[in-house]
Amino acid sequence: MFFIKEKVASIINSSIEEYNVFVSDAFKETVEGKVVFNIVLDSDEVIDLNRITEVSRVINDIMDNTDEIEQDYDELDIYSEEKGVSEDE
């Protein structure tokens, strides 16, 4: 049986590898009474805001169209691991 992180990574990673990012974690939690599905991305470099926005669009489309993951959550939150400050900021 897949753990949620491995299942999400197996569905998403091939579609986002061109952005040089990958799924480092995926989990559900309850926040203020809502179930939030968190997808955490990582890379060997700093992930700037433009890239996280582009990758989030790809992931949202995948999550909307997959039946491999239960849609039993209220909110999808996609964010990156903290790497420090980008030189562009």
Describe the structure in your own words.
The protein is α+β, with helices and mostly antiparallel strands and 89 residues long. It has two helices and three strands, in the order H-E-E-H-E. The chain has a three-stranded mixed sheet with strand order 1-2-3, covered by helices on one side. Strand 2, helix 2 and strand 3 form a beta-alpha-beta unit. The model has no long low-confidence stretch (mean pLDDT 90).
Q: Can you tag this structure with a few keywords?
A:
3-stranded mixed beta sheet; alpha+beta; globular; 89 residues
Which strand-content bin applies to the residues? 25-35%
Tally of strands: 3
CATH level-four homologous superfamily name? RimP-like superfamily, N-terminal
So what's the CATH class? Alpha Beta
Query: What strand line-up does the widest sheet have?
Result: 1-2-3
> In which range does the helix fraction lie?
25-40%
Low-confidence stretches: none
Mean pLDDT: 90
Number of helices: 2
Number of domains: 1
Radius of gyration equals 13 Å
N- to C-terminal distance: 42 Å
The major β-sheet equals:
3 strands, mixed
What is the CATH fold-level name?
GMP Synthetase, Chain A, domain 3
Q: Quickly give the structural class.
A: alpha+beta
The ordered string of helix (H) and strand (E) elements is HEEHE
**Quaternary status of these chains?**
single chain
State the CATH architecture.
2-Layer Sandwich
Shape estimate: globular
